[in-house]
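note to self: dont lose this again. the chain is below, predicted strucutre after it. 342 aa total, dont forget to put it in the shared folder this time
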Amino acid sequence: MLKYILRRLVLLIPTLLGITIVVFGVVNLAPGSPIEQKIQQLRFAGSADAEAAGSQQGTATVSKEVLDALKKQYGFDKPVHVRYWIWLKNLAKLDFGDSFTYEEPVIDVIMSKFPVSLQFGVMSLLLSYLISIPLGVWKAVKHGSRLDGVTSFILFIAYSIPSFMLAIVLIVFFAGGSFLDIFPIGGLYSDFYDEMTAGERVLDRIYHFILPLICYTIGSYTQLTLLMKNSLMEEVKKDYIRTARAKGLGEKTVYLKHALRNALIPIVTGIGGFLSIFFAGSLILEKIFQLDGIGLLSFNSILSRDYNVIMGLVFIQALLMLIGNIISDVAYVLVDPRIDFQ
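---
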């Protein structure tokens, strides 16, 4: 197993190189660039100044000297492959460069948005597994009952509702829309948050978390619950479970002690994804609930062609995903020692 992990860690390097090469090439070939964005700003500012001065000229031009200075400032005076090599050398020092939009180090920009996505990512993961696994086991034990049918119907309805539509409905009905005014419409905390005690701050955070957290997690419940239920039901049909029943063991012991561990094998497939929750983000939900997180940062960076931020986000998310896959493989072995990766 140790050799397998080491081999996978070694393979991370060429995989990450391949991902960054493709993304770097795509974002640099896409129309528009930070220089063009800056030129538009200069022209707009020049036009505004001309109008303020009463000039008849409605447009402003950018001289070649200014254009060359901008290219040198942003590093676009070099070919694409040279810029990638420079970025790669800086990456070895954990330097993602400076953001063209925010004009500060990329890592600082990402870390400033990190807490929002981390909080919602961790909470959605915990709630999904803590609710879905027991519910899936319960549905497997009560398979075919009326309550099993009712919960399945509710889960499928919840799964079919788009999260952004649910967010709008919740705001309209519970956040001062046309009906009740129970929850805040958005944000992470109240305006007088700094004046609160520690306990009041915790309650205020929970108060602001409820609606967006429901929208973050609503879709994952159905998948995990039904996966847990179907996996457990498939497991109880096997011969070793029949043998356990033949020995006179109770259904609770059969399900929870013998079948559950093997039934968890498909569930651990997603365990490695827990690293990705550190950079979880949802553009639409963040816009609706006024949350300044990773999803909104990614969208704005693409619009403004902020290449350094895009590359920083892609590299970190790809690294977490690849490490998460290794963790999933290790979890397989912990759940079922019969699995042996060579």
